[in-house]
Amino acid sequence: RKEVEQDPGPFNVPEGATVAFNCTYSNSASQSFFWYRQDCRKEPKLLMSVYSSGNEDGRFTAQLNRASQYISLLIRDSKLSDSATYLCVVNNRDDKIIFGKGTRLHILP
Amino acid sequence: ETGVTQSPTHLIKTRGQQVTLRCSSQSGHNTVSWYQQALGQGPQFIFQYYREEENGRGNFPPRFSGLQFPNYSSELNVNALELDDSALYLCATRDGTRNEQFFGPGTRLTVL
To answer: Do β-strands A19-25 and A11-14 pair in parallel, antiparallel, or remain unpaired?
Structure first.
């Protein structure tokens, strides 16, 4: 089993729709969790940290379920500019940082 | 802009050669991590340095080595380059008390 697994994608979604990304991790001792966004041929950029209580930033909501070792990202009212690859990131207790393969999102006009 | 810079932006080498990539840290960030990202894949963790010492390593062979300097800038060295080393190499820095990382623009390495 891979340490961090994401939906394979790509997701092709009409503008204005709601999109949900899922991510599972295998190490129950993992300590911190993030979602990054990566545009084509650019570096990853931090989108959100993910907290046990869940957190929201505008149209974006992140959730963590430690019992199921599962992280999610919800994008509401999607915009054309949301088109990118979304990367799930897990930090383990030994400071090893694991990225998922990423899920590509295409927002269609 | 994150304040993290990398050099060079692009590099072409031949198999068997050695390469050094550089990363300048964002001010106040004492921890740097290096990643290899092949086309269509997520970044793979190579190693991390905190205050000039390696304190975490991924599944990369010893020919991948690094340094961190007193000003927290960093180098990634790769010896005996192989064709599969062709990738985007990213560095990311953070304040050691926080886990959020900030990435540089990357160095695209092509090995022929």
So the answer is: unpaired
